[in-house]
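One chain given next:
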Amino acid sequence: MKKKSLFFVLLLIIGCSTTQQIVKSPFITPDELKHHVIYLASDELEGRKAGTKGNNLAAEYIANEFAKYGLKPFGVNNTFFQNFTFISDLKIGKNNSLTIKIKERIYTYEPGIDFTPMNFSEDTSITANLVFVGYSISSDSLEYDDYAGVDVKNKVVIMMRYSPDGDSSGSPFFEYSTFQKKIITARDKGVAGIIFINGPQNENKNQLIPLRLERGSMNSGIAVINLKCSIAEDIFNSYDKNLDSIQRFINKNKKPASFEFTDVQVKLQTHIERIYSETKNVVGILEGNHPTLKEQYIVIGAHFDHIGLGGPGSGSLLSDTIAIHNGADDNASGTAGLLEIAQYISARRQEINRSFIFVAFSAEELGLLGSAYFVKNPPIDLKNTVAMLNMDMIGRLRDSVLTVQGVGTSPVWNEIIARQNSDSIFKLKLGQDGFGSSDHASFNAKEIPVLFFFTGLHSDYHKPTDDWNLINYEGQKLVADFVTKIALDLDTISIKPEYTKVAISSSQREGMRGFRVSFGIMPDFGDDAKGLRISGTRAGSAAEKAGLKANDIIIKFGGKSVKNIYDLTSLLGDYKPGDEVEVVVLRGEETLTFKAVLQGR
């Protein structure tokens, strides 16, 4: 009887239901971490993609937890939410049209059926003559130029995808075969508009490229469409030219076969409708107790969004699979850690000196949009921010190995980290640089000391298999404990820590992939400037040495127009270490020109 009574008392204390009720402990526990992850990574939330119902449910859950812990709302209008809008999709607008006049006959084509605007396209109208430019490759080193002998200025050009070697990555033409490179080449030749086709030698020659939002969906400053190859073949046939034979000739001989159509006029109008959605950061605050230090802030953050159902352009590593990507490690794990740390510190709020801001960021997967919005619209003066601690993918601790990035961004970090890992719980992999592909980078660009905690990539990254049952909850607790101890240690320092800008090391350069040179800027993905706005430069980089600063808008690089990050990335491939390049930027109302000496990667 006593045993039964005790059993029922325990049930009342613990709670027992099919919804997995658990004890709410003021300590960080594996069970509570698991409880949060199971909900955030549930099918109900459908992958938490920014702008979706599942993302909103996750935001509400986090806000409710913050409220339970006694955090004060620190969003807009006395709520926990900091709302912002972003481009969530693209669709073919109403004002798309294509007519081609061949001699005296006019042919009209249907958008979405015969042609489609591409996500690089500018909204514009053009009437111009037509020129065929092969693969749109122009290279002195390869002694190959599709633009030699033809006048393309203010013309519409029709070009084939890929290269004379197809899409082979081993081809010397490969670096010239991307959409971005072809567009830049055409734009710099003075072209007014571009028609891409799949050549007749390519598979699915009449399959149009779907218009969809990708990270590369940025306005190139020129009209760009994709046309069915069969229509292009008809145009060629009207001039007794065979497109299939021409492509075979170029591919076999590695020689251009460009020409201008006589008496062919293209009338083209492009219009891409950008669909805007709303999402929200979730922001709570615990006010400090020290009379002066409470006006300083320690920010602890993690992003809570993921990539939804996956699919092309989503970032899924199984892009041909439509399935819920639950994102248990990325980043329900970091969000759960954020919640547990908020609960732990809130239970000890009378002991803290400084104020603590807890932020769950949205739209990180779309380019750090949430954290970029936060630092542009901060609820505090960012100059009073002591540091930002970021957790992204902390749920797969293996062999006690924990990566901590950003250690070089303040002189205080090495000592604090060593002190809090004096028991050697972790085998630490320390990185100095505060830049990176997670939300701490937005704060680092504002010259705020940062630390980034990460337990490493794995085979389930950005796949539907990243689920709650694969999380190491005991290890996740250790990481959350470690972050908490570092935060509270930082709170005891009487002087606001100094920020240090970190130069990228030679060993880091050697490990980086990509082109031969590095420029050293951080792009502002949340900006829609007519050019490339930067939010910062790396210490010791070519960009910093040249004199570029945060908020500069790069409009030309080496005499060529820059409309977005993909333009700059493509242009960097033309240079080698030690080359000097002229960079033109907009700084406020001024147009400034700098000389940058490019460094090796």
